[in-house]
Here is the input.
Amino acid sequence: MKRYDTLLVGLALTAALAACGGGGSGGGITPPGNGGGGATPTPAPSPTGVAAQTIGIALPSGPMGTVNTAPYGTVGGFTQQTYSQVLAFAPGTTVTIKNLSSTNAHTLNVLSTSAFPASPTLSTSSSGTNSLDGSYASGSIAPGGSVTVTLATAGTYYIGCAYHYMISPSMRDVLIVSPSATPGPQATPAPSSGTPAPGGGGYGY
Here is the structure.
């Protein structure tokens, strides 16, 4: 009889422990991403735009793509969101020009205030000013580097990269400085072009 009693007590304790183990935050297996104890799933990389008041630059032959925007024609290599687009900021805005490439230097040069020139003289040196005008040149911006410029005067500025304006697809764009201006539609790059890494970098172009 004693052996039977011992068996019953053992079964009762086992049942009690099992009941206790299922409650609270420490029991059972937590499904992934359910907030408890397990590893947090890593989201798939997705395109990320540049920060506010920033112009991102990279080769349009990569993820940024090109877009045909009337009346300017095909533009590419410059964005204030994620992919190539006509740029627009209010007068007086100070913007950061950020090189999104991990391999190539780029520039932002004002080429004209009326149209894209066929064969401009392009300098990789800075114009020596932090205020955008008809002769502004950022100078060479190293991969991942940046410079700032104040958009002091309203107008339409045709811009390009001194290194990549004369190649195809051309790294050129239009920067509209106006209180009422809005950015143009973004390019839709080919699926094979890939996407930038989170944080706005890693274009590799």
Observations:
- DSSP finds two helices and ten strands in the chain.
- The two ends are 83 Å apart (CA to CA).
- The domain at 54-186 is CATH 2.60.40.420 (Immunoglobulin-like).
